[in-house]
Amino acid sequence: MAISQQSVQRILLLPATLWLLVMLILPLIVVVIFSFGERGAAGGYVPGFTLEQYANLPARLTAFKNTLLLAPAGTLASLLIAYPLAYYLAVKVNPKLRTVLLVMIIVPFWTSILIRTYAWIYILGGQGLPRLLDFIGIEGIRLINTPTAVLVGIIYGYLPLMVFPIYVSLEKLDKRLLEASQDLGASPFKTFCNVTLPLSLPGVATGCMLVFILLMGEFLIPALLGGGKVFFIGNALVDLFLQSRNWAYGSAVAATLVVIMLITVSIYMKLILRHAKQRQDISVL
User: Does residue 282 surpass a pLDDT of 60?
Assistant: First the structure.
């Protein structure tokens, strides 16, 4: 008996579906269930159904505020730095030098993020950049344990994740389109705005999503460069689950974070798809 093509597709998708169910869906279900429970006398989780944990979310308002401000800011800053770099690598550099530069971008990933972040503690601390600023006459500048330090660490740590998706989109760009735009009298700026940028939007969308989603759960960079003064939601979750052992409240915070991320990503992707559709309709006309 012959197996239909649809059955073959379902069989091939079964391992990935099971993996997604076990590794993503089931943990989310557990977190949601825990969020309606209560903290036990010795910590942990006690079954129940209460909205008390969600009503207590304003107690972690600072962590939410820091995350919702610095995560988009870090994503935007990484994009503003990564796009010119990716454009230069994909369009302006000869292939031999391009390989060297791409390797240089990858090299920091060969070292632990912990070690690289500790290096920034020294650079931004009293013996690093502030001391240099004092030497040239700019005194009283404090960098470490501030939102600025966390933002610098975010850009440094996540910039390669933004560069490569954009580079791939630009590298696949048909150079004949750029030549055609120039032949039709368009200036380099108009060519970039009307041809290069729209065609590279998939890479921009991918890079932004990679960086933004990871930043929403970031823990290490705020903990080290923020010095306990710049808390992200990831830091709050570590405190709730590992130190205060309030699993119910931590689950409520985690569930709220997931909802915020889903709403933000959905709105962002909807805007990107709408813009891409408008560009496609214009090109057809």
Answer: no
